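Session log. Operator J.P. requested a structure for one protein chain; no other inputs attached. Running the standard single-chain path with token output.
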Amino acid sequence: MPERYSISLDLIGKDCLVVGGGQVAERKVLSLLECGARVKLVSPEISPGLRTLVENGAIVYRLGRYRTSDLEGVFLVIGATNREEVNRQISDDCLAQNLLVNIVDDPAKGNFFVPAVAKRGSLSITVSTGGKSPMLARKIREELEEIYGPQYGEFLDLLGALRLDLFRSTSDSKKKKQIMEIFFDREIMSLVKENRMDEVKERLLSAYCGSGSEPPDGSS
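Structure written below.
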């Protein structure tokens, strides 16, 4: 079987459909909302958590069973029902319309898998087993979350600000590369690992200002 092509989707403002009303569907809805998607939910019944989202206006809900017409205007679909015939119909309809579709209980029926994600702010580390073992992906994700603590999100934010300012203020590509390499020297990365973020920030700013650049607003 050919390798899967890994991508990171921008779902901000995109209409996404979740079919199903249980705990699995609830987790999928929440993950889509976190990515800025507009979520439509279809199911004969829904969990208390999903009911709360509906009542708060966070998602659009249609009470009833899945219909092909539910796909109108949709960008991405997740089938999270416990009925094989419904999941198969969702898959067939979506593939016929070239829509992105994931069937939670049978990933092979869809055209994309949802990886396990270790998230630290803007840093996302994904683990995929190609749908062969979601449990293994989850176990590896949990190990990654222990290795890469929340400080890596803070580190990334600081790097992003310095990089943006550097690229705005410096046209010399060689100089930019040299400065960026300093940001990732062994001592700085060790300090990040030990969560000594005040020292990390001090060293990054020292390296940046030592290059003749002014620190970005708010980073001094």
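Operator note: Residues 3 and 169 are 41 Å apart (CA to CA).
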